[in-house]
Write a structure and sequence with these properties.
Helix content is 57%, strand content 4%. By secondary structure, it is mostly helical. The protein has a two-stranded antiparallel sheet with strand order 1-2.
Length: 196
């Protein structure tokens, strides 16, 4: 199928582990944002040309279900997928939204977790186009991260003053760095930056 030589075992394992970590991290960001949005606001679009958080979640889950079902053996765009319907908010409750969201992510984690380093030298199809397995994985990661960013931005706007920062708060980078590196090492790094 593919002319790509297999990655050395530890490099392939590192790639798969890093990919899993990146997906889990981004899901965590989205989950922390979603929990800060009231139920009714999950379905609110910022304007007629944008998607609500519920719709973005539906699309991400639908994409993950399609791409990661039988990942190695069938085209990533499944005949049963109705992508256009993913952009229609058909959910009646937060529980329905979360349930479908979790279904998509679980399919991803199960499938990604079952890949071996030997699988990285294979090829898969997405909409009839050949992709190496690493490229297909990176395509899925990029697509998912793009939409996680949307969820976080919309959630931030809708939560307003009730928002709890998910990453390092504005103006708190120095404090965070001191906690990570320690006061002395942080000062040394700052002096090195000034000297360069």
């Amino acid at each position: 199928m593919s002319n790509i030589p297999p990655l050395p075992g530890d490099l392939g394992s590192m790639f798969l582990e890093a990919t899993m970590t990146s997906f889990r991290s981004n899901k965590g960001f989205a989950d922390k944002a979603i929990v800060q949005v009231r139920d009714d606001k999950l379905h609110m679009s910022l304007d007629p040309n944008t998607n609500s958080i519920a719709v973005i979640m539906k699309h991400v889950a639908g994409n993950l279900l399609s791409r990661w079902s039988d990942f190695l053996t069938t085209d990533g765009e499944k005949p049963w997928r109705n992508r256009d319907e993913e952009f229609i908010d058909s959910f009646k409750s937060r529980d329905e939204v979360i349930s479908y969201w979790e279904l998509g992510w679980q399919r991803l984690f199960d499938s990604l977790g079952s890949l071996t380093t030997e699988d990285l030298s294979r090829s898969v199809m997405i909409r009839g186009e050949v992709h190496t397995v690493p490229l297909a994985i990176q395509r899925s990661l990029a697509h998912t991260c793009y939409h996680v960013g949307q969820i976080m931005l919309v959630a931030r706007l809708l939560a307003g003053d009730q928002w709890n920062t998910i990453t390092i708060p504005r103006g708190a980078s120095a404090t965070f760095n001191q906690q990570v590196w320690g006061e002395e090492d942080y000062r040394k790094r700052g002096a090195e930056r000034k000297g360069s």
